[in-house]
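Ligand-bound model needed. guanosine-5'-diphosphate.
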Amino acid sequence: MALSFDKKKHPRVVIAGRPNVGKSTLFNRLTGRKDAIVDAQAGVTRDSRVFEAKMGDFPYELVDTAGIELGEEGIASRLNVLAEEAVASSDVILFMVDGKDGVTSADEELSARIRAFNKPIIPVVNKSDVKVSADTVYEVYGLGFEYAVSISSAHGQGIDELYMHLQPLLEAALAEMDTSDDEDERYVLPMCIIGRPNAGKSTLVNKLLNSNRMLTGPEAGLTRESIGSLWEVDGHLVELVDTPGVRKKGKVTEDLEQMSVTGAMSAMAKSEAVILMIDATQAFEKQDAILASHAVEKGKPLIIGLNKWDLVEDKNQAIADIKHRLEHSFSQVKGVPFITMSALKGKGIENILPTVLDLHQKWQMRISTAQLNRFIEGMVETNPPPMRKNRRMKIKYMSQIDSEPPTFALFCNMPEELPSSYVRYIQNGLREAFDLYGIALHVKPMGSRNPYAKKK
Ligand code: GDP
Ligand code: GDP
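Prediction:
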């Protein structure tokens, strides 16, 4: 099934809710599709699609999730996976409950699951024509929401109020979006080079500037105010973020060591990839490790440039050494990719930009829930979570809730009891299974039950 949830022209809305609450009916009302089939039978499989809708003259997109509702069961089925992808690709979630039925335990479970996506949620109580659904509205408060909009999808009541809540959220999403339709405008990946004094940063910068086909901005369609040095690699654009103290070194009066850290921090904040330059003839020192873990903690993809390779005599030994050091330093830095090079002679530097692009892509990657569940099953089988409070901890499933850096929700029965060592075990496993070295990974244990829900 070819699903394209990624290409987004307008802010996107998804209607989530268990089967038969009236999602399709609302979908049809909002998109004005009178011909669409409303299926009273639950679980009908249809391809999910994205449709354009308008609120006044404000365009937005609505995902048709008919037949791919998030199921009640823990382990994700194929339909669940599609539904999660639909939710993940959206900017606003309309969480619909049936005012006739009231809030059920399935609704509770579902509200916890969609909350994990950290997106704005508008709770909607449907079928208000059948029953005064004030009780249901209160039950929705019990799920931890501060309001709920009562509507009748079938009769069109309450839609104005729904729009009132929806509009500011869509406007905010639009402001966040890259709205340029300009075909020429391409994404520019900002990268910086950091490292201790004398590692060879300036030498590398100069070499990169001279030996690559550099674009002298502003190119057609490149509208960012200040474009530094810009390269085109495999059709992608990479920009070098200026690191204070690198190029204008002559004028520096401050302590260089200090400068390299503070300068590195501000350059890293503006970058989406970080090259840490290390002098291969020197030991990998604490300050290198600190810079490296800062980069990873800030969620930036990191590559180590092992410089002055021309001066290294026993190259095999040097590689074994750096591998050993990277294996035994901070856990975030474990397995970080490195490139051997001689900035001075211009050797090996051609590998930098392709490696950066590869890592950046992984940083933005979305791993499907199906893959994650296969992964988590294996992890639990090899090393089950411990007992707590005389109960076996259970990992139910896992899904990716964000990227840049990749962030995962790990659903389990006692999330607050899951030891951090077990979370690290999962993180390390993820790195290995999906080749995510050099990238921060967040794994958040969560309960599928809503912590705000009233005890019944
Ligand atoms: P979905 O499975 O969530 O997409 O639900 P549907 O849109 O297919 O609706 C399920 C059933 O509820 C259908 O029989 C609809 O006619 C009915 N329904 C939907 N909205 C309303 C409403 O506002 N009022 C009433 N009374 N029935 C509704
Ligand atoms: P920065 O302080 O990190 O910007 O380091 P520089 O680029 O100023 O380099 C410090 C010194 O190392 C200079 O004398 C460079 O010529 C030298 N250097 C830089 N890269 C290499 C290299 O790949 N091989 C060798 N042999 N020397 C290098």
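The chain is about 35% helix and 20% strand.
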